[in-house]
Amino acid sequence: KKALDTREKEFGKTSLRAAWSCQNLGICHSEIEEFDRALPYFHRALNAHLKDIKPDTLIFLKISIADCYRGDKAMALTHYNQVLAFAGNQQESKRFQAKVWTAMGRAYFDWGDFDVANSLFRKALAAAQSSCDLPTEGNALFNLGRTFFASGRTDEAIKYFRYAIQVLESSTSFNKSELAATRQSLAYVLLQAGDVATARYLLEGTQ
């Protein structure tokens, strides 16, 4: 908040520098599920970034806004579909669509509809693979693992978590925290399946 106040005074409320602070504040509030407080910051950041026209940033913000409406399924789906249409009109449409389908899959997962979530994660996986987007591919595989485990399909969950780790480790731009989370998820599932040794090995690798 202090960074935002400083940047607004120095560069103006609609500057891109202020927009980045708004975006970060939106992320902070959404991480602790304060969606009503996150939305105004995401909207302010989006309005400023519209002048800059960077599809990656715009799609991230549009998805973030849609995520804030998960408590209202109809409203959330309206926003997700709007982002999906926007993504389809971009030059790297498959890469951007993969990100939107992943977000929609997570929403359906949270709503308890694992079949639809699984279908959306598979669409995200195919699109990420066709656009050679390894981080998004790894994320889709990770979410497929979560969905299979939630559906009681432990063997499939283990397989997809392993796939996700392989893909994330082969990427030069993977998120270390995402890789650690995937390892921890696989370790948890393996513990449930009685494979304590492999689970311990995975957990030691996240230290």
Task: Give structural notes.
With 207 residues, the chain is an all-alpha fold. 80% of the residues lie in helices and 0% in strands. The chain has helices at 2-11, 16-31, 35-49, 55-67, 73-88, 93-110, 114-130, 134-150, 154-170, 176-192, 196-204. The two termini are 32 Å apart.
What distinguishing features does this structure have?
207 residues, 11 helices, 80% helix
β-sheet strand percentage: under 5%
Structural class assignment: mainly alpha
| Low-confidence parts | none
N-to-C SSE string, H for helix and E for strand: HHHHHHHHHHH
- Helix count from the secondary structure assignment: 11
Query: How helical, in percent, are the residues?
Result: over 70%
Shape: globular
Mean pLDDT: 88
Q: Find the count of extended strands (DSSP E, 2+ residues).
A: 0
Distance between the termini: 32 Å
**Biggest sheet, in brief?**
none
Rg over alpha carbons:
18 Å
What is this structure, in a nutshell?
With 207 residues, this protein is an all-alpha fold. It is 80% helix and 0% strand.
